[in-house]
Design goal:
The structure holds three protein chains of three kinds.
Chain A: H1 2-7, H2 15-37, H3 39-71, E1 82-93, E2 100-109, H4 111-134, H5 141-160, H6 164-182, H7 189-220, H8 225-230, E3 241-244, H9 252-255, H10 260-267, E4 270-272, H11 274-289, H12 298-301, H13 307-316, H14 321-328, H15 330-333, H16 337-358, H17 364-384, H18 388-417, H19 423-427, H20 440-454, H21 460-474, E5 476-477, H22 485-489, H23 500-527, H24 556-562, H25 581-596, H26 603-609, H27 616-629, E6 632-633, H28 639-666, H29 670-678, H30 680-687, H31 692-739, H32 746-765, E7 771-776, E8 781-786, E9 793-797, E10 824-828, E11 834-842, E12 848-856
Antiparallel strand pairs in A: 1-2, 3-4, 5-6, 7-8, 8-10, 9-11, 11-12
Chain B: H1 6-27, H2 31-51, H3 55-80, H4 95-116, H5 136-147, H6 157-167, H7 169-191, H8 213-224
Chain C: H1 4-24, H2 28-53, H3 70-100
Helix pairs in contact in C: 1-2, 2-3
Classes of the chains: A mainly alpha, B mainly alpha, C mainly alpha.
Chain lengths: 881, 232, 113
């Protein structure tokens, strides 16, 4: 360890270069040479890059542990960091308080980013291994791994970046990779559209992130995280930010006719703390990346990408970047209880909302996608309640069990796809069933993950999710006391009412019930019962998927109605079979973590049993969340109270699983069909995902389209018609005139050159007596400076007697009347006095010319008046010329 | 009127040869005759260089111009054969070109006159090469005093070598690079693009001499499409 | 005595004859020869001025061990460049002839606007 620290000192921790560089190298090699290298080499490159990066990450992580041990534990221990500054990026300098801000390309591993780094490289390695087998037959194998490696690189930049701009680089990098991978099979319109949708939805969020960054820069005077933490107090700037009215105010013609009371209410100035606005803006960015209401719509569509992509990017890592950002900037978010309440509320609502949609979807991956949205909601509920550790811990456990679920689903789809050669149909759960006996390993791992996500103790999901719910119930965010002028102008910070926490708790419990139900619905439909894939003929498509199509939940009837192969059981074709070992090994490892990872932060057990080793994560992350610790009020642990809060979660899991078993195994789907039949409209609405996409189409997208249509008209008539065509016509006319001179014959051009040379000759042959005047207003001294020229020599008449003065021009001590090198004279003037100065010039050809210049000094009361320009006098005939 | 000095006679003869050669070059209908005129003008100027103490330059002038450039012109003229001759040339000079040339002639003559016969009496004479006041030898003596080295005489090979290889080595090397590039460029341009020549039928032996330039030209014409109609 | 102006007038005359030839003759070969004439006229002027200023101590570089040879050096390099120009120019004449089967400048007007 000492040797390692000697090679990689904590302040110049170059091992980060290897962690970041290997995936980048993989992306480069696979992207540039992949096509020529062949599949084996591409696989070798991609896997070696990832596993190498993971190995380096492990080394770095253990070094960080050593470092943390050196610095000591406890509340007051400094945050252990391993920093590597690659190069100085840019220096911003601003006016006023905003001195100069240096932004370095600097990376840091601290407890938070260290854990995240391990998850990304570790889960990433497993998924790479899985994907190498899953994607083996794809013609764009190398492209896939180029993108995937690039994604890991970008994600690591996002995590390890030590400043907001660098985080933003990673943020956009993962967005780009996400776009590329969602549209990986871009030949299909649907996939390309899904990629586009993800990209654009994320742009909306990025706008918020950029605004938040700008506010952080302005109010905290820094962009690196340490600097932001130090300057976070600036976000409670007593001047506040005017949020209403926008701009200077309302014009009187707009509000003058309103009754006085309404007018006052409408036009009153309203201020807010920068912390609130900044936090909301940052959260908008998080909501975009982490698929929260209202920007969650892209994530379900993102399932158009290959399944390993869904597992890695759209479940385990990228979508949790928003949660990571909130954790990273916890000291910014806690400054405003309003922001925290917003985060928690949006999280809880998303958790519930997405769960309702997940209840009725038929597509296996769609259900998992909505489950991901829902689980992300729980994470935000956690961090929004101030339980940063628990929110982040849910990121950690979710990465394992959701990756495992997706990979399991991929394994299932892989098997079913061999039977049904249709992307949509092979993902439809109504075509599955009974896979338990064909794919035992997939079945076991999928079950373990389902149990984990449903929150059954002692699996990982129980400890992370129930701790979030408990904290949401009882934790409060303490508002900073506002005093002085700020209190008068802005008022105190808004604090959410006391009932909000319990309300969010019950919303979360409701969501947890649904989670348990829909997860086990997928499990039972997929692995239990009989395999229905036999009855599906190749190329069969579910009719009218997007149109309203009745109310039955069971696709079996459809098959009988539409599939021509009805009754032909046991069609020829391969049986579903277990996937090869490169695909099952990651499943097993991930399932093991899904089962056991919860004990890393089993707070409820640890506190009850007084076993701190069960709360490793809490201790480990304590230095990261120490800055916000004072603002989060957590009641003292009370075992009975804690178990009271945990029991509804257990009941929720039991009810959800039990009902799923009852409905799909015992009754074969009868009860759910009945419920759907009783409320067909509601069921249809849920099946159509509450028609949120349609709502957005009608409102936001429709408005943008209308704007674009208007702009098209303006572009067509004003820009193209008037500006472009008119100016083109004018230029064309001019060009037509110039064309006459372009004969294309060399000698014409040479003749023009001769004419120009002659003109220059004439210019140089004639002398040009020009002069400029500079003045010193204090003394009234005017300096007349003659312009230079070819062999120019000068004579002056400074005393105004009409004759050129005598001056010693040749340096023999006697004044003479010859032209000499004196090219400037000085004239002293009283205010309001003016004088005539004559300048005579002789050039190299012996030609003479003179010019009379009037020098005038303005009256005294205009000090610093502009210098007068020389006024040419009528030119006298050149002497002897 | 006093007898002209030997210098004046020498200058007058050389100048007359040079001007006569130049006039022949410009006015000759036959380009071969023009090249001969150029040769005459170049020879006259080389002789004038001698009178200006530029012995080395005079030799270079003869070697490079008379020996290389004019011969190159002759080669090209002979390569082109009768096509090098443009009989309609003299009669169709565009009026504006004539006007421009005339203006140039008048202007340069006028300038020369005004420059040096403007009555100020400042017509510079060449500093003498024999001992005396204002002599070049005084400068040589000054240099010798300053550096302890006797400078070479003006314009000798020794003096020019000193200039070229000591003071002006870098420009000299750049000039050599320029010449190399010019040679390569000339070869590339003169040879034309490969495959532009007439396609040989298969089986013809590859070692046959290149097609005559006329044949190549016609092939190029065919490749370039219909040539613009020539004015009759 | 021969003064500088004799050479200058001669140089100007030769230059003018060359310019006249270049402007009026349509035979590319003659035009090229005219260019050579103009270059030579300039050379003559340079060498004459060198002779005039050879006795000017101010033009000798500090620590120099030679008389002033600037004009002759210029002429020397102009001769080198003129040789290169003639080689390339004549190569272009050949290329033009191959394309147009003519050496008339007024037929090479593809750059006409």
């Amino acid at each position: 360890m000492h040797t390692l620290f000697a090679i990689f000192p904590a302040q110049q921790f170059a091992l980060i270069a290897a962690i970041l560089g290997l995936p980048l190298l993989g992306a480069f090699v696979n992207g540039v040479f992949g096509k020529r290298l062949g599949r084996d080499a591409v696989r070798l490159m991609a896997l070696a890059a990832l596993f190498g990066s993971f190995a380096c990450s492990l080394v770095a992580f253990f070094m960080l542990r050593e470092r943390a041990h050196e610095l000591g534990h406890g509340e007051l221990a400094p945050n252990p960091r391993l920093v590597w500054t690659a190069w100085h990026w840019l220096a911003l300098s601003g006016r006023d308080a905003l001195g100069s801000v240096n932004v370095d390309v600097s990376f840091a591993i601290d407890p938070l980013s260290g854990v995240m780094m391990l998850v990304v490289t570790g889960v990433g390695s497993l998924i790479h291994l899985y994907a190498a087998s899953y994607m083996w037959d794809d013609p764009s194998f190398h492209r896939f791994f180029c993108y995937l490696n690039l994604f890991v690189f970008s994600m690591l930049v996002l995590i390890l970046g030590d400043s907001m701009p660098l985080l933003f680089v990673g943020w956009e990098g993962v967005g780009l990779c996400s776009y590329l991978l969602i549209g990986f099979w871009f030949t299909e319109e649907k996939n390309a559209a899904a990629g586009k949708k993800a990209f654009i939805a994320n742009r909306v969020g990025d706008f918020g992130l950029l605004v938040g960054m700008a506010m952080l820069l302005y109010y905290t005077g820094a962009l690196d995280f340490e600097g932001i933490r130090r300057g976070a107090g600036g976000l409670l700037d007593p001047r506040g930010v005017q949020v209403w009215p926008l701009g200077a105010g309302f014009p009187s013609w707009l509000v003058g006719w309103l009754p006085d009371g309404i007018e006052k209410g409408l036009t009153a100035q309203r201020l807010a703390f920068p912390a609130t606005l900044c936090g909301l803006a940052l959260f908008l960015g998080c909501a975009g990346k982490s698929a929260q209401i209202p920007l969650y719509v892209w994530l379900p569509d993102a399932m158009a990408g290959p399944t390993p992509v869904s597992a890695l990017i759209h479940a385990a890592t990228m979508v949790t970047a928003g949660v990571y950002l909130v954790c990273r900037l916890n000291f910014v978010f806690v400054l405003s209880p309003a922001v925290m309440a917003t985060v928690a509320t949006v999280g809880a609502l998303t958790a519930l909302f997405a769960a309702t949609i997940g209840l009725v979807q038929h597509d296996l991956k769609k259900v998992l996608a909505y489950s991901t949205v829902s689980q992300l909601g729980y994470m935000f509920l956690g961090v929004g309640s101030g339980a940063f550790t628990d929110g982040f811990f849910h990121v950690f456990t979710h990465a394992f069990f959701k990756a495992c679920l997706f990979l399991g689903a991929g394994s299932v789809i892989h098997a079913v796809h061999a039977r049904i050669h249709d992307t949509d149909a092979s993902q439809d759960m109504r075509n599955m069933g009974g896979l338990r006996k064909y794919m035992p390993l997939t079945h076991a791992t999928y079950l373990a993950s389902c149990v984990a996500i449903a929150g059954v103790p002692p699996f990982a999901g129980f400890f992370s999710k129930d701790e979030i719910l408990a904290k949401a119930f009882e934790t409060k965010i303490k508002a900073h006391a506002i005093a002085g002028a700020a209190a008068e102008r802005i008022g105190p910070l808004w604090t959410p009412p006391d009932w909000l926490g319990p309300l969010l708790y019950f919303v979360g419990i409701a969501g947890a019930t649904m989670t348990a139900f829909y997860m086990f619905r997928t499990y039972f439909l997929t692995f239990w019962g009989d395999f229905k894939g036999w009855k599906v003929t190749p190329g069969w498509k579910e009719p009218g998927h997007d149109e309203h199509h009745g109310h039955d939940d069971h696709g079996h009837d459809h098959h009988e109605a539409f599939a021509p192969g009805t009754g032909r059981d046991h069609l020829e074709g391969p049986e579903p079979h277990e996937s090869p070992s490169p695909m099952t090994i990651p499943l097993v490892i991930l399932a093991a973590f899904a089962v056991g990872a919860g004990f890393l932060n089993a707070t409820i057990l640890g506190e009850t049993l007084h076993a701190p080793e069960l709360m490793t994560m809490e201790h480990w992350l304590a230095p990261v969340f120490a800055p916000s610790k004072g603002d989060v009020v957590v009641p003292a642990f009370d075992a009975s109270h804690a178990w009271m809060l945990a029991i509804p979660g257990l009941i929720a899991a039991a009810v959800g699983i039990g009902f799923a078993y009852f409905a799909y195994v015992v009754k074969g789907g009868e009860p759910t069909r009945n419920i759907a039949a009783r409320a067909p409209k509601l069921h249809q609405l849920m099946l159509d995902k509450w028609r949120v996409d349609e709502l957005y189409d009608a409102t936001v997208i429709g408005a943008v389209d209308e704007l674009a249509n208007t702009a098209v008209v303006a572009d067509k008539w004003v820009v193209d018609g008037v500006l472009a065509k008119a100016s083109a016509a004018f230029v064309g006319l001019f060009g037509a005139g110039l064309r006459l001179f372009q004969t294309g014959k060399v000698q014409t051009y040479a003749a023009a050159m001769v004419v120009g040379t002659l003109a220059l000759t004439v210019f140089f042959y004639l002398p040009h007596p020009d002069a400029s005047i500079t003045s010193d207003p204090a003394t009234g001294t005017f300096r007349v400076q003659a312009g230079p020229g070819l062999g120019y020599r000068y004579r002056w008449d400074a005393d105004g007697d009409g004759k050129l003065d005598e001056f010693d021009s040749d340096g023999d001590g006697k004044p003479d009347d010859k032209f000499g090198p004196r090219d400037a004279i000085e004239v002293k003037l009283e205010p309001n006095q003016s004088k005539q100065v004559t300048l005579a010039v002789e050039n190299a050809f012996g030609r003479h010319d003179t010019r009379t210049i009037t020098v005038a000094r303005p009256a005294q009361e205009q000090p610093g008046a502009p210098v007068l320009m020389p006024r040419p006098a009528p030119r006298p005939p050149p002497p002897g010329g | 009127m006093s007898m002209p000095t030997i210098q004046q006679v020498y200058f007058s003869i050389c100048a007359a040869l040079a001007v006569a050669g130049a006039v022949i070059t410009v006015l000759a209908r036959n380009p071969i005759r023009g090249a001969m005129g150029l040769l005459l003008a170049i020879g006259g100027m080389a002789a004038l260089f001698l009178s200006l103490s530029a012995e080395f330059l005079a030799a270079v002038q003869l070697l490079v111009y008379a020996g290389a450039v004019v011969v190159l012109f002759l080669f090209v003229i002979m390569l082109l054969g009768p096509d090098a001759h443009t009989p309609r040339d003299k009669s169709v000079a565009a009026p504006r070109l004539v006007a421009a040339a005339g203006a140039l002639l008048v202007a340069s003559g006028g300038i020369a006159t005004i420059l040096f016969w403007n009555g100020t009496g400042r017509v510079p004479a060449f500093p003498p090469l024999v001992p005396g006041p204002g002599s070049v030898l005084n400068v040589e003596a000054a240099i010798e005093r300053a550096s302890g080295v006797t400078p070479a005489k003006l314009g000798t090979i020794e003096a020019m070598a000193n200039e070229v290889y000591v003071a002006g080595l870098v420009p000299f090397e750049i000039a050599s690079a320029l010449l190399l590039v010019a040679v390569v460029g000339a070869v590339a341009v003169a040879r034309g693009r490969q495959g532009e020549g007439p396609r040989r039928p298969a089986g013809e032996k590859s070692g046959s001499p290149p097609a005559p330039i006329g044949a190549m030209a016609s092939a190029a014409d065919a490749a370039a499409g219909p040539a613009p109609a020539r004015r009759a | 005595m021969i003064h500088i102006q004799h050479y200058l007038v001669l140089g100007a005359t030769l230059f003018t004859i060359g310019a006249f030839g270049f402007l009026t003759r349509r035979n590319v070969l003659v035009a090229l020869m005219s260019i050579e004439l103009m270059l030579n006229a300039v050379n003559l002027t340079l060498v004459a001025f060198n002779r005039l200023h050879a006795g000017n101590l101010a033009l000798v570089a500090p620590g120099g061990r030679n008389l002033h040879h600037g004009g002759q050096m210029f002429a020397f390099f102009i001769i080198a460049v003129a040789a290169a120009e003639a080689a390339v120019g004549l190569a272009i004449v050949l290329a033009l002839y191959r394309l147009r089967r003519s050496v008339r400048t007024d037929e090479a007007d593809q750059l006409r606007g």
